[in-house]
Amino acid sequence: MPLPPVSELILTTVLACLTAGNWRIAWRPAWLRMATGAFFFVLLTLLTVKTSGPPVAPVFDTASMAIGLWQQGLVAAWWILGGRLVVGLLRLPLFRERGTGEAKLGSDLVAGIVYIAAVLAVVNFVFDLPVRALLATSGVIAIVLALALQNTLADVFAGIAVGIEHPYSIGDRIWIDGAIEGVIVQVNWRSIRIRTDGNDIATVPNSLIAKARVINRSKPTTRRDDAVQVSCDASAKPDLVMDLLRQATMLCPKILADPAPSVLLSRIGLRSNSYDIAFSVAHTDHLGAMKSLLLKEVLRQFRYHNIRTSLPAGAAVDGLASPLVETLTPEQLLAEIPLFAALAAEKRDALARTMVRRMFEPTKTVLSQGEAGAGLFIVASGVVEGSRMMAGHSHVVGRFGPGDSFGEISLLTDGPNPGTLVAVTRCILFELRRNELQPLLAAEPRLAAALEASARRGQAFLARDAAKAASAPPGPPAQFLAQIRAFFKP
């Protein structure tokens, strides 16, 4: 016997509230959606039991067609809302950060199964239709569709398998066998989309990914390890070459110190030896630039130590290579520096004879921040690190290698050194003292302009590098320019 039916108005009001409530909270937080859904489900359960009995065995009012239809709608709504609540509960363990755009293949599959079960329950319990016949008919249709869509289904099931394993996610950088590399921008049921380094979008079906080799560049970290190989003539001592190659890595700011770069002698020959330099960078975006910079620094080290990268073809091995030198001569060193390129050769040689050779062991201080500048220093060999004290902490500004110079700002302004210079490796420096350089600058306007431009570039770099320096600033631009002009006066 059916329970006494409630009025059609109450049923209409309940169904309208259910529809409006679920629509209003569609974009609300998950906890609010779950709480509201549970409230409506409890309310709907009470109404369903009172009007039609248990939802698995409902009894509808046959005297009034309108009331009977609304009772059927009420029970159908109970099954659908119950299925939605179950899907929400099952998705909680799989909940991921919103805004990723990633298709939750596993949870979507579970949701589909639950909703299909809810629809079949409605067909069986509400409309009293034979479910077995429906399933048999749908099975035949499923076989036909599977044969027609076998490639698409292969992508879908491969996507499900990959989604369960979860080897990558949105934003990861991956490499796929077949020279496809880039950042994942979308994952869906059939494929993934990758933004390549050429700013193209590559769409790769899931079935191909399931069979291919995939390397995730972002996990467990974004760090990238790589190596370059360089060759030089066999007459160069391996210990010296390996030390110079390590110094070249020190001059590349984005090469990580941990793990430390390594240098190996990989091949020996009659004419040339090969060396492998292994290094790491924090991100793939830095890799190309650091490989290029590292090779440039290697060439610079070889040039300033007179090491050939290769021997001329057909030349004899014995006695051909230039003799190895600890550093270039002062004359050769000045000729290599663009700052003194405008000087005539005889004036440059005369200036070179006034240079003072100084040697520093590792960790020895070359210049201290705040002390008076003595002259212009030119690095002939080794690596020097510059740092500044800011807010009570030492901050590394940069490093200098063979051919670099420093000290222009304090030399021209007669002010204190803006930073501290410390030898990282065994270093050989040449110093041009102020009293030796001042008469030449007064007589050579082009050299004076070049030195002034170098000093101003150095000041601009320091200003960008630190908002506040512990040492006294050199003053406003007008005052700084006046100090430089005063230096050039005889």
UniProtKB/TrEMBL annotation:
Bilayer-spanning residue ranges: 30-49, 69-93, 105-127, 133-149
UniProt superkingdom: Bacteria
SMART domains per UniProt: cNMP (SM00100)
Annotated PROSITE patterns: CNMP_BINDING_3
Domain Cyclic nucleotide-binding positions: 339-441
InterPro entries from the UniProt entry: cNMP-bd_dom, cNMP-bd_dom_sf, LSM_dom_sf, MscS_archaea/bacteria_type, MscS_beta-dom_sf, MscS_channel_2nd, MscS_channel_C_sf, RmlC-like_jellyroll
Keyword Plastid: no
Cellular compartment(s): Cell inner membrane; Cell membrane
Family: Belongs to the MscS (TC 1.A.23) family.
UniProt subunit comment: Homoheptamer.
Protein function: Mechanosensitive channel that participates in the regulation of osmotic pressure changes within the cell, opening in response to stretch forces in the membrane lipid bilayer, without the need for other proteins. Contributes to normal resistance to hypoosmotic shock. Forms an ion channel of 1.0 nanosiemens conductance with a slight preference for anions.
Protein name: Small-conductance mechanosensitive channel
